[in-house]
Design a protein that fits this description.
Helix content is 51%, strand content 14%. It has 10 helices and 7 strands. The two termini are 33 Å apart.
Amino acid sequence: MLRILSVDDHAIVRNGLKILFEDSPGAVTFGEAGGAQEALRLVREQEWDVVVMDITLGDRSGVEVMKEMKLLRPKLPFLILSMHSETQYARRAFKAGASGYITKDSLPDELARAIRKVAQGGKYVSETLAELLITDVEGGGEVAPHDKLSGREFEIMCMIGSGKTVGEIAELLSRSVKTISTYRARILEKMGMRTNSEITYYVIQNKLLE
């Protein structure tokens, strides 16, 4: 029995995963979550072999949600399924504990193989990502400015880049306005910026939003 939890805020993606395994040999069961809180509840209450999740869940970072899930189930493997290119997000996802990263434009057979490999305790990387990681190890890879940010700082930077105010972000993350303002100051300092407009421009230019 393969137990897959699909976490994505688009129902069409969750349904697509079900269809992918319809004719698969062996029993496969699915759980679905369209948001962070629902996903956390399902991880807390049930056993899963693998979680297949998007890098963004509405206004939450999938990477941050994954970290919360790993506190509940440290050995639970995660496969990130995203529209974002590997060059933008894969490194961050792997550092946070993901076992694999695959883009939504991958072939169905490749996605199925990735899910099974991760569920069995393996790691999945595409050929493109493997080359990037080798370049990093050899010291030739360029580090993007946003790679200097922590996971939470990156999440807040993307929220600012999408046009949200400090107050709105504080409410979404259940933090004080003062705390979010402190994060904003750190982001500006690390990125060498001065205004929210610069953050927005950077986020859009680097395609950090879906």
